[in-house]
Amino acid sequence: MKSHFQFSKQQRNGILLLIGFILGLQALLWWSPFHKSETVEQSDQIEAFIREIDALRKVEIENNKPKIYPFNPNYITDYKGYVLGMRIEEIDRLHEFRATDRWVNSAQEFQNITLVSDSLLATMAPYFKFPDWVNTSKAKTKNDKPYYLTSKTPKTYAQKIDLNMATQAQLEKVYGVGKKRSERILKYRNKYDGGFVSDIELSEVWGLTDDVITQILQHFTVKTPRAITVINLNTAERDQLVTVPYIDYEVAFNIIEERTLRDGFNSLEDLLRVEGFPKEKIEIIKLYLQL
TM segments (predicted)? Predict the structure, then answer.
């Protein structure tokens, strides 16, 4: 081993010279402008990438947030209330209030009923959208009320105006109707030659709530119904049944199948047992059927 570490003077000078050359070369590379500019450029690129990733992350977070559109607070469901940040007891208070067939007509009334905080109300109220007649009634003064208000003494059939003869001006006087709803009523009436068949068809007019329909029927009723073809439910074929509103071929097939199993229907209410039958439209459908 000793022979490996014994060098002559010339060899030692060569080794030192080699070591010095290597160290000098390393120093030159480290402090050279090329090395510094490359490092700075790479650092700037990394920071730019980080900023871009952060921006994309923020956009993705905003896109994943539930979007809130204008809505009527009277119809807030449990899920909708949860998304809006309401507590369970606050949602329950609203549902209990609505169960009494009463309506929320302002943001302040909504807070009084649900007891939501001011901060939560401030985030929700901008999206509240109440019916047109509510907003119109707020703007009216006490001396500017419609003629047809709820009367303690119900009008007789003779005193009521024929709904198929009523003018838009007459309909507008009903509390809760206004210009837009009266236009929709006339538009629906004019869709058919002869107008309405029955008072129940008012439920087919878009935007008419049960309360508004009740107000209308206190002063109007169908006295001259349009003529329609009434079908015998126990003998009608499928092609006849599909002429009835809201009955398509699938429902017609199910009606005939149920009729065969029952050996005929005993009541129009038996249609509620038919698979796929539009139960919410049965009162309209019953106008076109008989036993």
Answer: 12-31
Residue for token pair 């030192």: 16
Question: How high is the pLDDT of residue 19?
Answer: 92
Render pLDDT for 242-255 as a digit per residue (tens, 0 to 9): 999 999 999 999 99
Q: Which CATH superfamily is 231-290 part of? A: Photosystem II 12 kDa extrinsic protein (1.10.150.320)
CA-to-CA distance for 95 and 93, rounded, in angstroms?
Answer: 6
The rounded radius of gyration (Å) of the Cα atoms in the chain is: 39
Q: How far apart are CA 197 and CA 243, in angstroms?
A: 16
- Of 5-9, 54-58, 265-269, least confident by mean pLDDT is 5-9
pLDDT for position 284 = 92
The DSSP secondary structure of 240-291, one letter per residue, reads HHTTSTT--HHHHHHHHHHHHHHTS-S-GGGGGGSTT--GGGHHHHGGGEE-
